[in-house]
Specification:
The protein is an alpha/beta fold and 358 residues long. 37% of the residues lie in helices and 15% in strands. The strands form two sheets. A six-stranded parallel sheet has the order 2-1-3-4-5-11, with helices on both faces.
């Protein structure tokens, strides 16, 4: 069969495939009720004919586009990991993904983008952080919305990691190693995740009897440059900390650069812990001890929630909290321990068990 690759109607595809228009539509939209053999044939015919489904028309006619919009700032590794996970989960659910990437200077998407998403997608997944005031304007959009992380004016279902418990694990680990003067590089406090991590740090200071000097907290805003500047601030203290906990891995990378810039080493002079467990945490030298966020599970939970909402099923809870875990690598060591540097300068993995406080 020979056909021209040009725009063709659904009825023409159905005629060539010898099926009804409804069957052709089901096949092209990954809906049930069509055998895999017939679906493959219809998809082949549609490709040969250059057919492109008009998804806006589908929505306007009361149907579903089977496209989910994702709004995110892709300049962070953590967010990129989440978007990849969302894409994989959506494909498994027979949905497609339309991503709008905010620049690192944007506070919110342009209104034109929000308007386009309203027309084109069946639902939106929003990955914070960034100023989320514009979420208020989406409340009347009659469109399912799920967020990952929690920001101001966020009354939508949300998927979060257990940031508080994860930060407690990080501080407990450093305290178990003998560190009493621990610096903290905070994140973007517009976000509940950043506030939870800082609250856990302060609670563990009190619970474990650690040094509570207010100068031990410096703002990093979840940024690499912010982590660098915050670490410089901590290192200028007359009694500098023996360990630093950074609110995310990217600011920890910045802190590591600042420590080296000051002529010090990790972990020989200062132990360092991050949060997120993005790819770079296991690739830098020394490898970074960090708190692992369940990115894949968070992505899957966001997709499951929004697909259920599209089907008219309300979430059982407005918030889903997933557990975090501590990943021990080479950037932490017991206070005062002398570590011989191997000639090969290969990363050393120092393993320590977390024991209860007391």
């Amino acid at each position: 069969m020979s056909t021209n690759k040009k725009s063709s109607t659904l009825s023409e595809i159905a005629k060539i495939a010898e099926v009804s228009v409804m069957t052709a539509s089901r096949a092209l939209n990954n809906q049930p009720g069509v055998s895999e053999e017939k679906r493959a044939e219809i998809l082949r015919i549609a490709e040969d004919m250059g057919y492109v489904a008009n998804r806006i028309a589908q929505r306007l006619s009361g149907g579903k586009s089977r496209v989910i919009g994702v709004i995110a700032q892709l300049h962070t590794l953590y967010t990129s990991d989440l978007v990849l996970g969302i894409g994989s989960a959506l494909r498994s659910s027979k949905y497609e993904m339309l991503v709008y990437s905010l620049s690192d200077t944007d506070s919110q998407p342009p209104q034109a983008i929000v308007s386009l998403l309203r027309q084109f997608v069946d639902g939106i997944i929003v990955i914070l952080p960034f100023q989320s005031d514009y979420l208020v304007s989406l409340s009347d959009a009659d469109l399912p919305i799920v967020t990952i992380d929690e920001g101001p004016h966020n009354n939508f279902p949300k998927i979060v990691a257990d940031n508080y418990q994860g930060a407690r694990l990080a501080i407990q680990h450093l305290a178990n190693l003998g560190h009493r003067r621990i610096g903290f590089i905070s994140g973007n406090n517009q976000l509940a995740s950043a506030r939870d991590r800082e609250q856990a740090f302060r609670d563990m200071q009190a619970q474990l009897g650690l040094d509570t000097d207010p100068e031990l907290v410096a703002s990093g805003n979840f940024l690499q440059q912010g982590g660098f500047n915050a670490a410089k601030e901590l290192l200028r203290l007359s009694d500098r900390p023996t360990a630093i906990f950074a609110a995310n891995d990217i600011s920890a990378v910045g802190a590591m650069a600042a420590i080296r810039d000051a002529g010090l080493n990790v972990p020989e002079d200062i132990s360092l812990v991050g949060f997120d467990d993005v790819a770079v945490a296991s690739q830098i030298y020394p490898t970074l001890t960090t708190v692992k966020q369940p990115s894949a599970q968070m992505a899957r939970a966001a997709v499951n929630t929004i697909v259920a909402m599209i089907a008219g099923i309300e979430p059982a809870s407005s918030i889903i909290v997933l557990p975090t875990e501590l990943v021990l690598r080479a950037s932490t060591r017991p206070l005062g321990e002398v570590v011989a540097m191997p000639n090969s300068k290969r990363p050393r993995h120092i393993k320590n068990r977390i024991s209860p406080a007391g």
